Amino acid sequence: MRVHICAVGRLRAGPEKALLDDYLTRFDRTGRALALGPAQVIEVEDKKGGGMAAEADLLSRAIPNGSLICVMDERGQTPTSPEFADLLARWRDTGRSDVAFVIGGADGIDPTLRARADAALSFGRMVWPHMLVRVMLAEQLYRAASILSGGPYHRA
After folding, report:
1. Can you give the pLDDT at residue 106?
2. Quick check: 46 pLDDT over 90?
3. What is the Cα–Cα distance from 51 to 108, expressed in whole angstroms?
4. Is residue 98 part of a domain?
5. What is the CATH number of the domain that holds 80?
6. Does 118 map to a domain?
7. Cα angle 5, 107, 77; round to 5
8. Residue 82 domain-assigned?
9. How far is 17 from 83, CA to CA, in rounded Å?
10. Residues 72, 6, 120, CA angle at the centre, nearest 5°?
11. Per-residue pLDDT tens for 80-111?
């Protein structure tokens, strides 16, 4: 199952980009044998200042057709890492070939796009900077692949 991280904004070179790239590389390596991955980041940018609605339009166009859509939203479910791993495995095992994790901009995700989502996940009740959410998601993807493969990375 291919993984797409569809996000508002451009992540420039720096520590966040280095972490994101590292975790996605680890995920791709570990997930390959599990039919998970590859993972890619698709960045969109609303240069006209159209707000959440314009961002939702750009994000909708970035999501591959037929993808399971999972929005990263503070109102979403807060699974444990093993529960997230099980969720990924269930999505893969139901025959989904693509999953798109959607990360909105500073104002969040437009309600119309949120309503289209198959799932909504949260990293807790706190609000996180959308650039850090990418890194946190990439780490959890790698952790999920490690859990599913029986690797030593996750110590519960």
Report:
1. 86
2. no
3. 10
4. yes
5. 3.40.1280.10
6. yes
7. 60
8. yes
9. 26
10. 20
11. 999 999 999 999 999 999 999 999 998 889 99
